[in-house]
Amino acid sequence: MNFIAVDYLIMVLLSVLIVASLAIYFIKDLLHAVIIYGAYSLTMALIWLQMNSPDLAITEAAAGISMTILMMVAIFRTNRKEE
């Protein structure tokens, strides 16, 4: 089996996805989990680009950015410190 450099890059990105999804599951702090979710979304968009699907990459990036922002806003609104 002959692999080219793009195949190795996709394998590395897939292992980053696995690590990120496990980290999201085990992290207790919501803000850190949302930050890792943003990295997960960016990695997934890069994988779609490497697989020659730019339409899916743009959709993944847009959905990931919007969901990350919405989740951060929700976290900041619900976790306000009492003054």
SSE diagram, text form:
Layout: H1 5-26, H2 30-50, H3 54-78
What does this structure look like?
With 83 residues, this protein is mostly helical. The chain is elongated and about 55 Å long. The chain is built from 3 helices and no strands. Helix 1 runs antiparallel to helix 2 and helix 2 runs antiparallel to helix 3. The termini are far apart. The model has no long low-confidence stretch (mean pLDDT 90). Helices cover 82% and strands 0% of the residues.
Keywords:
about 80 residues; single chain; mainly alpha
Shape: elongated
Query: Which structural class do you get from the secondary structure elements?
Result: mainly alpha
What portion of residues belong to β-strands?
A: under 5%
Number of strands: 0
How helix-rich are the residues, as a percent range? Answer: over 70%
Number of helices: 3
The topology string of helices and strands comes to: HHH
Concise structural overview:
The protein has 83 residues and is an all-alpha fold. The chain has helices spanning 5-26, 30-50, 54-78.
